[in-house]
Amino acid sequence: MDAPVKIGNGRQFHIFLGLCKVDNLRLCVEFKANKLAAEGAGEDQKQPIQKDDSLGEEEEDMDEEGPDTYCESTKGSSNRHAPVTSY
């Protein structure tokens, strides 16, 4: 029987991940962005991303080399990125 569980903080999520070691559990995630009262009301509207013209030619050439993320080993980490921790 599936019962929804609301996880509200990192400690609860860590405990949930510990349960995944024992049983097969399904996880459905919903993210909600917190807003400060001082921020404008129009911020939750989608806006197009504009290219930053201040990029140098070297940075633009790097984008053409391939995808930014990749994995060299079966453990899920590469020398280009920080180590990935799995629970």
UniProtKB/TrEMBL annotation:
Residue ranges under compositional bias (Basic and acidic residues)?
43-54
Residue ranges under compositional bias (Acidic residues)?
A: 55-67
Q: Locations of Polar residues compositional bias? A: 71-87
Task: Record the organism.
Answer: Eruca vesicaria subsp. sativa (Garden rocket)
What this protein is called in its record is: Uncharacterized protein
Stretch list, region Disordered: 39-87
